[in-house]
User: What shape does this take?
Amino acid sequence: MMIERLIAELDSADAVPAEWRNAFLAVPRHVFLPARVWMDDEQGRPQPLSREEDPERWLRAVYRNAPVLIQFDDGTTRWPDTHGEVCTSSASKPDLVLSMLAALDVHDGHTVLEIGTGTGYTAALLAARLGAPNIITIEIDSGLATSARATLDASGLPVTVLTGHGAQGHPSKAPYDRVISTAAGRVDELPYSWVAQTRVGGVIVTPMRTDFGGSVALVRFTVDKDGLATGRVVGRIGFMALRGQRTPEWTLAHLDPDDPPPSAPPPPSNLGASPKTTMSDGPLAHAYPAASGNTNQPPTDRKHHLLWLLDPTNGS
Ligand SMILES: C[S@@+](CC[C@H](N)C(=O)[O-])C[C@H]1O[C@@H](n2cnc3c(N)ncnc32)[C@H](O)[C@@H]1O
Assistant: This one.
């Protein structure tokens, strides 16, 4: 009943691709979620929620079209602490999962490599659609991998769950028809192993981020016979970074005023017409994908202000 209610909500936004309806109905989301989670409140602040303490609210919450947060700060911030800095694992928002799966364009018999197992829910949907033997999923956090493996097995969907760094892929079972990452790679660091391990004509769907502006693009690539992946942005989303590709925080306070930092190569000459696009996801963000923007003086008028671009990866 809860799945049907969620499907009705998603249907009203036309968010359930026909080819995913049966798999979506076959996989109960609550089975994959831990008993203790956090959900964002209306102000976007994470609030703890426990199945033992309030089973009805927990169940209603996990069947909302919302992300369910299951880990902060790589597990160092423990439930129910709400002071975690970064959410490092979640069950993604159902409409986002479905849009990524639709972009993946799977067909019967396809093999899929997923990066970022998390709860195992996306892997379960893939297994319900294509069969568990056709799915391999990699999770960097061993605790999450163990728990997802157990849930998938208990659900009769014995997907291969590997613990490891997804950026390396899993060469021994390559080539895959499809690769999907549910953690965002930085624009300048898309792991080439994913391209090398996808068959010619195969598809890679991945969120890609720049630090500057914090924008994440969902990108769909097709791999050609020369080992080149080309594609387009198919959506704008919020997504956590691949572990191993997180950029450290860096602000003006890190700069020594007596020791001028090395300067970066000059920006591209044509920065585009729209300042908003230029700032967050335009050419400037792509030229300096690890840079963060810092403004250290209030605007003197409403037209101009000084923007510092700081690149923690090279100190410029
Ligand atoms: C948004 S969550 C995944 C959602 C998941 N597909 C689901 O259905 O629950 C992203 C996951 O990617 C994992 N991750 C981050 N960096 C990774 C890496 N380098 N290799 C493998 N997994 C990684 C995180 O630990 C986290 O569990």
